[in-house]
């Protein structure tokens, strides 16, 4: 690590204020927040929203699985830590408030990482954000963590200066966000139905780089101890994503509010599959995908395609921050082949969307074309997708495309495939549950 960076990081501990009052403990919490898609309400045409989303996702798929490719014997401590997903590659913003009195802001949610962080004054380096930077001096409930705190130990790469815990989440070649690990009181929920939770560990970032895409930080919803879901009890959350182009926000539910028994918007059977853990990337939500059916054909996908390998490569995750899905190359090619065989039109690729499985649309007169269905077979659960959840129409090229791309490492079930589905991440019981639902009526 460069001397200059170490110097900047050590400065953080001098500029970070010391405040102390009494601590309270976290109660079991249940609340509802709402998610806004980053391109919602900004007047972009649908084609543009899709091509931007696919571009962001293809960058994300390259970085999400990156730890598994980094040698653990690397002498560079920065390079050997997990590379943070670029914040601008997330897809949904949530509203929350920080401090006492509460300062409202929006943050990108990320099921691919754990840390909750926002930019803080004084800034050594900050990027533009729509709300003022958080000022710890103006809050009565800010407490810095010492290096021995269990949350400090839970960081991928904790740094310690004068017994103050400094976090750093980095890209492969420099700091993305660095600052002091602290406790604060957070307020969650929709305006008057809010809940206030004291002592949430978060990163108070004094040194930040990269675009925040109209947010002012991130909320990690990964599996690790620092994630919001693990800092609240009971450890479960759910979302129900409205139609991709809908201006209606999507509910995000935590704790006791995240319950598939409690909702009357479910329109089909509830299915569950166990999470599996990848010790190389412990924050990601791995599931066991066994097969895929396209139309009438159960594809002859080799078991190796979705296997989570001993070195941490491969496997299949479910993610909220990737838009379309990505399938391991062998599986992708079989899906492509099945569409070629079952759709009576010539297949073309679409550079505008960056997708390969596309057909000229509408079909010529008197040619009836049936788009085959797609079912993901998980261990104990089948996810059959409605056409709206995997077909994307590009008005500018007149092409109708399957929203699935190829991956050279693991596979990702993206958020486009999860539209109008109640998706419950139950960490307490190690289960992912899902059911078709009318998310816009929740
Ligand atoms: C929380 O709700 C109360 C009313 O119950 C409201 O006065 C307050 O402004 C809300 N706080 C935030 C941060 O939304
Ligand atoms: C932060 O909050 C946790 C959880 O309530 C608590 O155990 C810890 O002592 C707090 N640390 C500080 C520095 O306030
Ligand atoms: C931020 O929001 C403004 C107003 O909604 C919008 O014009 C702008 O494009 C957004 N910027 C980004 C990077 O999303
Ligand atoms: C739903 O209810 C059933 C039976 O009452 C119970 O076994 C199950 O754990 C509940 N599921 C959730 C997610 O609360
Ligand atoms: C495929 O389309 C062609 C016309 O383009 C038609 O002659 C043929 O019968 C169709 N085949 C099937 C199986 O639908
Ligand atoms: C999933 O689909 C397969 C193939 O159609 C079927 O054999 C299996 O019983 C289904 N599993 C569940 C849990 O519905």
From TrEMBL:
<dbReference type="Pfam" id="PF14541">
    <property type="entry name" value="TAXi_C"/>
</dbReference>
<dbReference type="InterPro" id="IPR021109">
    <property type="entry name" value="Peptidase_aspartic_dom_sf"/>
</dbReference>
<dbReference type="InterPro" id="IPR034161">
    <property type="entry name" value="Pepsin-like_plant"/>
</dbReference>
<dbReference type="InterPro" id="IPR032861">
    <property type="entry name" value="TAXi_N"/>
</dbReference>
<dbReference type="InterPro" id="IPR001969">
    <property type="entry name" value="Aspartic_peptidase_AS"/>
</dbReference>
<keyword id="KW-0325">Glycoprotein</keyword>
<dbReference type="GO" id="GO:0004190">
    <property type="term" value="F:aspartic-type endopeptidase activity"/>
</dbReference>
<keyword id="KW-0064">Aspartyl protease</keyword>
<dbReference type="Pfam" id="PF14543">
    <property type="entry name" value="TAXi_N"/>
</dbReference>
<comment type="similarity">
    <text>Belongs to the peptidase A1 family.</text>
</comment>
<dbReference type="GO" id="GO:0005576">
    <property type="term" value="C:extracellular region"/>
</dbReference>
<feature type="active site">
    <location>
        <position position="319"/>
    </location>
</feature>
<protein>
    <submittedName>
        <fullName>Eukaryotic aspartyl protease family protein</fullName>
    </submittedName>
</protein>
<feature type="active site">
    <location>
        <position position="110"/>
    </location>
</feature>
<dbReference type="InterPro" id="IPR001461">
    <property type="entry name" value="Aspartic_peptidase_A1"/>
</dbReference>
<dbReference type="InterPro" id="IPR032799">
    <property type="entry name" value="TAXi_C"/>
</dbReference>
<keyword id="KW-0378">Hydrolase</keyword>
<dbReference type="InterPro" id="IPR051708">
    <property type="entry name" value="Plant_Aspart_Prot_A1"/>
</dbReference>
<dbReference type="GO" id="GO:0006508">
    <property type="term" value="P:proteolysis"/>
</dbReference>
<keyword id="KW-0645">Protease</keyword>
<feature type="signal peptide">
    <location>
        <begin position="1"/>
        <end position="20"/>
    </location>
</feature>
<dbReference type="InterPro" id="IPR033121">
    <property type="entry name" value="PEPTIDASE_A1"/>
</dbReference>
<keyword id="KW-0732">Signal</keyword>
<feature type="domain" description="Peptidase A1">
    <location>
        <begin position="92"/>
        <end position="435"/>
    </location>
</feature>
């Amino acid at each position: 690590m460069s001397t200059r960076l170490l110097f900047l990081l050590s400065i953080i501990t001098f500029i970070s204020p010391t405040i102390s009052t009494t601590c309270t403990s976290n109660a079991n919490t249940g609340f509802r927040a709402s998610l806004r898609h980053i391109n919602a309400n900004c007047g972009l045409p649908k084609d543009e929203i899709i091509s931007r989303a696919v571009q962001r996702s293809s960058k994300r798929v390259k970085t999400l699985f990156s730890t598994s490719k980094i040698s653990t014997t690397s002498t560079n401590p920065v390079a050997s830590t997990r590379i943070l997903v670029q914040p601008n590659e997330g897809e949904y913003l949530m509203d929350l408030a920080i401090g006492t009195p509460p300062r409202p802001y929006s943050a990108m949610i990320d099921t691919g990482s754990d840390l909750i962080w926002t930019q803080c004054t004084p800034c050594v380096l900050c990027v533009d954000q729509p709300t003022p930077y958080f000022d710890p001096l103006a809050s009565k409930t800010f407490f810095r963590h010492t290096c021995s705190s269990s949350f400090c130990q839970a960081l991928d790469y904790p740094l310690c200066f004068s017994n103050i815990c400094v976090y750093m989440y980095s890209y492969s070649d420099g700091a993305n966000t660095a600052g002091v690990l602290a406790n604060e009181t957070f307020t969650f929920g929709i305006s008057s139905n809010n809940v206030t939770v004291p002592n949430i560990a978060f990163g108070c970032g004094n040194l930040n780089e990269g675009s925040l895409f109209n947010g002012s930080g991130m909320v990690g919803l990964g599996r690790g101890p620092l994630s919001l879901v693990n800092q609240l009890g009971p450890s479960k959350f759910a979302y129900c994503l409205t139609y991709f182009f809908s201006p209606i926000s999507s509910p995000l539910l935590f704790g006791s509010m995240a319950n598939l028994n409690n909702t009357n918007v479910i329109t089909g059977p509830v299915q569950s599959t166990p999470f599996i853990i990848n010790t190389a990337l412990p924050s990601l939500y791995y599931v066991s995908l066994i097969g895929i059916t396209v139309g009438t054909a159960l594809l002859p996908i080799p078991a190796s395609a979705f296997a989570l390998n001993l070195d941490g490569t491969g496997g299949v995750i479910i993610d909220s921050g990737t838009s379309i899905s990505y399938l391991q190359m062998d599986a992708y090619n079989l899906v492509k082949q099945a569409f070629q065989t079952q759709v009576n039109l010539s297949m073309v690729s679409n550079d505008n969307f960056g997708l390969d499985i596309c057909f000229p649309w509408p079909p010529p007169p008197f040619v009836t074309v049936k788009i085959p269905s797609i079912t993901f077979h998980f261990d104990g659960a089948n996810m059959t997708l409605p056409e709206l959840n995997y077909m994307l129409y590009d008005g500018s090229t007149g092409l109708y495309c399957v929203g699935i791309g190829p991956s050279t490492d693991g596979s990702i079930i993206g958020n486009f495939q999860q539209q109008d589905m109640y998706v419950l991440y139950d960490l307490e019981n190690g289960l992912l549950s899902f059911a078709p639902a009318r998310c816009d009526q929740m």
